[in-house]
Write a structure and sequence with these properties.
- The protein is mainly alpha-helical and 124 residues long.
- It has one domain (3-24, 37-119).
- It is 69% helix and 0% strand.
- The longest helix has 23 residues, at 64-86.
- 27% of the residues are buried.
- The model has no long low-confidence stretch (mean pLDDT 86).
Length: 124
């Protein structure tokens, strides 16, 4: 794998997982918001799944099923890691509901036809 390839496909995955980790490290990421923001896990982890699928596809040339399965597995595993990490953040807790929303967001990668138009002109 060339350095250019790594920068183009895997650095966005690393930066995005770092962003999620950073947000999860805050005791109260949005202190002025008075509603449950768990639903935000869906779009955040959909984007992670998309970035991982893009990187896996470009790196391995795997078929669609393998790429999608890898993206979903990585996304759900990262969601579990994220929740475990929050056990050690003051003011945060482990939430199975959030893991469910993470999995839902990651699983949306399966429904490629409806969302691929969003990204057809964007080469992330």
């Amino acid at each position: 794998m060339s350095c250019h390839h790594f920068k183009k496909y895997w650095v966005p995955v690393l930066l995005y997982t770092g962003f999620i980790f950073y947000i999860s490290s805050m005791p109260t990421p949005f202190p002025n918001v008075k509603v449950d923001l768990s639903i935000l896990h869906v779009p955040m982890f959909f984007m992670l799944s998309y970035l991982v699928a893009r990187a896996v596809s470009a790196s391995t040339g795997s078929g669609k099923r393998t790429t999608i399965a890898a993206a979903i597995a990585f996304t759900v595993a990262y969601g579990v890691f994220d929740e475990l990490h929050q056990l050690y953040v003051p003011g945060r807790t482990f939430s199975c509901l959030d893991i469910g929303f993470d999995a839902l967001g990651g699983g949306l990668i399966v429904f490629k036809p409806w969302w691929e138009k969003l990204f057809e002109r964007v080469d992330l």
